[in-house]
Design brief:
single chain; four-stranded antiparallel beta sheet; 7 helices
Amino acid sequence: MTNDRPHAFMDLIENRVSIRRFVRTPVEKEKILRCLEAARLAPSSENRQPWRFLVLDDPAVRDEFADRAFSGIYRVTRFAAEAPVLILLLARLHFITHRLGRWYQRVPYHLIDMGIAGEHIVLEAEELGLGSCWIGWFDMRKARKHLGIPRGLSIVGMLALGYYEKKPSRERRRKTLDEIVTFNRL
């Protein structure tokens, strides 16, 4: 099977940057659902699919949430409040895979699972002409209380999603493969 653009996926990855300046243009529900469908198809530990996504796209709901989540020491991420869509990444932990697995292996598999699902969202967003930014610095306690998130769900992070006027260039230097890869031994 041949591909018309053999490097389309790498082009997508190379062009994706975190967006921190959004325009208030609403994002079409169809595009939001396509991003979430991409996340739904992500691989997960033991196929447990721990992800749950809480989408805040109603401006009044999003703004009220942002007033709480991005206050105090979390004010530095207030830019995310300008995004038309905020997606909370929530994980429902499975006893054996996530709790015992973490205890035995010392690996928080649910964080890996959620990272993969979240990355699927940002890559699909890029494909659809949307900007995104991972947000980890927000008041999770206030977010949980304000949104009534039950104890059985762990807040892992948030994605800001929306349109932008101008895409920033990739300013930060990326390490070369020689700096990060070895074969067969360190």
